[in-house]
Design goal:
Length: 525
């Protein structure tokens, strides 16, 4: 099979989507999961654009990536500035990545009207920038912005821009459909022409403003492109980037191309949903391949046929991309997913009865609003309870949170709780910046004398989502909290009509998870 590189720009282009903002920790978490999936290139951000992206590259330097190559993104030098004096190019240098993507103008309209430079100076800006970074020993990907609009308006000049980058030493030229308005035949035509001209590898970076990003990406690959740049779930500015989950599945399962690691396609759905949770976005049920409804069947002859022969109403096997078939009247068994996720770790991968108990409990909780893709610690606790490998460290007697404010004064919050620890009732109170902070502080005051291991448990991020919006202010909320501990970074989840109770559930899961792992690591259990 012919290989195709997958270049993920979720952390940069994807973050430009409306309502999306990744913390540094979010970006590191996504980076790890993309690496595990086998993504070839991960674009971490534009280090000059904001302190958060610069901080990401500093933190990411400590990551041990087994497959992915981290990429810093930036622009060509400014007009009238030597490349060695350009703050943007030097920020790319200082990001410390071997691979750097530089974007430049292809469309003559953008050179003269947006940048305010002559066509010749734009060519020099492209060549100077690529040559400078190559001279530093970096591998440069050149993103030809607005390529397909540019060659439509001025074919000769559009081709000159990518030729300038190639002659300056670019390793790969990526052709961008920045406005997302191109048609697949137009894309295929110009990919072929570009490849014939520059004689170096060609990539494709499509946007979805005409709903054709996937079609354009696949047309480009068939025309000779060897790299697809896109985002997980297609998130991005306006109508989004190309959804690489769909592209990957089609390339692997339908078109005979090689991408990702050989055994990683079965994790595609899991990573897709993880990114939705980290981005605090509602998953798209009807999303091809990875959506919750992608292999859902409801009533009538469809269900009857699928029960006899799955392929009668399914274009691929859902398990191939880590999804599962759903019969909406009565859920079909998905114990294989449970077995793959945790069966080997707990030696139950062949224990069908135990797997079914876990699945039934997960299904019950998911119907109540729980989601476990970004809350693996909570999932592990459920599994442990079903197979008898859970230990109770404390019981709640009661908690109380009081929030007060008088006039324009400060908001005051106090939490008081009583826990039963080793059959002894212990009460503590704590002030906090809010109810969750106050509850966390009170919980620690009670437990740390008996369980000092929780001193190494630190909250990293906190997200809230409404589960049933029709209930308005009485709606259930789902709280997902990320923690860092010696086990690494993990997530827990709680669901309730009361945001404090949902938060308490997630806090308790984190403490139990930390204590269980500490006990097992120290050989006390």
């Amino acid at each position: 099979m012919k290989p195709v590189q997958i270049y993920d720009t979720t952390l940069r282009d994807g973050s430009q989507g409306e309502g999306i903002s990744f913390s540094v920790q979010d970006k590191l978490q996504i980076c790890r999961r993309l690496d595990e999936l086998g993504i070839d290139f991960i674009e971490g951000g534009y280090p000059l654009s904001n302190p958060k992206d610069a901080a990401f590259f500093q933190e990411a330097a400590a990551l041990t990536l087994r497959h992915s190559r981290l990429v810093a993104f930036g622009m060509t030098r400014r007009k009238g500035v030597k490349p060695q004096d350009d703050v943007g190019l030097n920020a790319l240098r200082d990001a410390g990545t071997q691979y750097i993507t530089v974007v430049g103008k292809t469309w003559d309209l953008h050179a003269t009207e947006v940048l305010g430079v002559s066509l010749q100076e734009n060519l020099e800006m492209i060549a100077d920038s690529v040559r400078y970074l190559v001279g530093l020993g970096r591998t440069v990907i050149y993103d030809a912005e607005h390529f397909f609009d540019g060659v439509g308006a001025n074919p000769e000049y559009g081709l000159q821009t990518i030729q300038a980058a190639a002659q300056a030493g670019a390793w790969l030229i990526c052709l961008c459909d920045t406005n997302g308005g191109s048609m697949p035949d137009h894309v295929a035509q110009w990919v072929k022409r570009a490849a014939d001209l520059v004689k170096i590898p060609i990539g494709i970076h499509p946007h979805n403003d005409s709903g054709l990003a996937v079609a354009n990406a696949q047309a480009a690959v068939q025309a000779g492109a060897v790299q697809v740049q896109g985002t997980m779930n297609g998130i991005g500015e306006r109508c989004g980037n190309v959804d690489i989950t769909t592209v990957i599945a089609n390339l692997r399962l339908k078109m005979g191309y090689e991408c990702l690691l050989p055994d990683s396609l079965g994790h595609l759905t899991e990573v897709s949903r993880f990114v939705y949770e980290i981005a605090n976005l509602n998953a798209v049920n009807g999303q091809p391949f990875v959506g919750a409804s992608a292999f859902a069947h409801k009533g009538g002859m469809h269900v009857h046929a699928v029960n006899k022969l799955a392929s009668s109403y399914e274009h691929v096997a859902p398990e191939a991309i880590g999804n599962s078939r759903r019969i909406l009247v009565s859920e079909l068994s998905g114990v294989s997913n449970i077995a793959a996720k945790a069966g080997r770790k707990f030696n139950i991968e062949h224990d069908r009865a135990a797997l079914k108990r876990v699945l039934d409990k997960v299904t019950e909780l998911e119907s109540a609003g729980y989601v476990f893709e970004a809350a693996e610690a909570s999932f592990e606790l459920i599994l442990r309870k079903q197979i008898g490998r859970w230990h109770k460290f404390f019981d709640l007697d009661h908690y109380r949170c009081a929030v007060s404010r008088q006039g324009q004064g400060a908001v005051l919050t106090k939490a008081t709780l009583t826990l039963l620890v080793a059959n002894q009732a212990i009460t503590a109170s704590a002030d906090g910046d809010g109810p969750v902070n106050a509850l966390d502080a009170a919980l620690r005051r009670v437990l740390e004398p008996s369980y000092p291991a929780i001193k190494s448990l630190h909250l990293v991020d906190y997200k809230v989502r409404v589960v049933n919006a029709r209930a308005e202010t009485a709606a259930k909320v789902r709280v997902v909290i990320e923690f860092r501990s010696p086990e690494g970074v993990f997530g827990t989840v709680g669901v309730s009509e009361n945001i404090i109770e949902a938060s308490w559930q997630a806090l308790c899961d984190a403490v139990e998870y930390r204590l269980l792992h500490d006990a097992e690591a120290s050989g006390r259990r």
